[in-house]
Amino acid sequence: MIEATLCFPLRGDVEGDAKEVLLIEKRRGLGQGWYNGPGGKLEADETPRECAVRETREEVDLAVDPDDLERAAELTFVLDGETHTFCHVYVTETFEGQPRESPEARPEWVAIEEVPYDRMWEDDRLWLPGVLEGRTVRGEFAFEGGRPLDEAEFVGHDLEWDVPLSEEF
Ligand SMILES: Nc1nc2c([nH]c(=O)n2[C@H]2C[C@H](O)[C@@H](COP(=O)(O)OP(=O)(O)OP(=O)(O)O)O2)c(=O)[nH]1
């Protein structure tokens, strides 16, 4: 099983500014060509928070403090009946720097009402809107049709909203 992270930096929401989320257009690997948050797979001996910080730095050159990351979701992606990936999702309103393009990602600030769900993983429309409003969720998403996961068919889901997420991460 793969353990992975996603980090969604947020800005705005003050004095009438629209709340925006930093998305990336992923340039390679799983989910290539789709929008997502910065993130990726845990490396050896790395905690999920460390992974989210490292991936956000590597992909868009934004500095986030692991202690500022707020746990938002725990997502399990199941492929043909077996857990393929467990993903820790964080949001943060605190970061330093300006997002910069990298070989892996093209960053873009997007108003949360304008998130391009038609250009994202199919399950994202089910959980990301709530997460961007500050809710927590635990979700399981079933895919079928063999690897790679991003070519499999999304066949079912189960969501639990406003749950306390594991304190370990
Ligand atoms: N938003 C969203 N993200 C997903 C879904 N499924 C899924 O694996 N992800 C995330 C988890 C990871 O952050 C990312 C895949 O990991 P990755 O970016 O390291 O994959 P990769 O194949 O490019 O790996 P690498 O070569 O860079 O090591 O995609 C999904 O359904 N929705």
Automatic annotation (TrEMBL):
Biological process (GO), any one: DNA protection
Ribosomal protein as UniProt keyword: no
GO function terms (MF aspect): 8-oxo-7,8-dihydroguanosine triphosphate pyrophosphatase activity; dATP diphosphatase activity; metal ion binding
Domain Nudix hydrolase: 1-133
InterPro entries: 8ODP, NUDIX_hydrolase-like_dom_sf, NUDIX_hydrolase_CS, NUDIX_hydrolase_dom
The entry's keywords: Hydrolase, Magnesium, Metal-binding
GO cellular component: cytoplasm
Repeat keyword on record: no
CDD domains for the chain: NUDIX_MTH1_Nudt1
Cofactor requirement: Mg(2+)
PROSITE patterns: NUDIX, NUDIX_BOX
Enzyme Commission number(s) from the entry: 3.6.1.56
Catalysis performed (reactions): N(6)-methyl-dATP + H2O = N(6)-methyl-dAMP + diphosphate + H(+); 2-oxo-ATP + H2O = 2-oxo-AMP + diphosphate + H(+); 8-oxo-dGTP + H2O = 8-oxo-dGMP + diphosphate + H(+); 8-oxo-dATP + H2O = 8-oxo-dAMP + diphosphate + H(+)
Subunit architecture: Monomer.
Task performed by this protein: Oxidized purine nucleoside triphosphate hydrolase which is a prominent sanitizer of the oxidized nucleotide pool. Catalyzes the hydrolysis of 2-oxo-dATP (2-hydroxy-dATP) into 2-oxo-dAMP. Also has a significant hydrolase activity toward 2-oxo-ATP, 8-oxo-dGTP and 8-oxo-dATP. Through the hydrolysis of oxidized purine nucleoside triphosphates, prevents their incorporation into DNA and the subsequent transversions A:T to C:G and G:C to T:A. Also catalyzes the hydrolysis of methylated purine nucleoside triphosphate preventing their integration into DNA.
Family to which this protein belongs: Belongs to the Nudix hydrolase family.
Database matches in PANTHER family: 7,8-DIHYDRO-8-OXOGUANINE TRIPHOSPHATASE, OXIDIZED PURINE NUCLEOSIDE TRIPHOSPHATE HYDROLASE
Descriptive protein name: Oxidized purine nucleoside triphosphate hydrolase
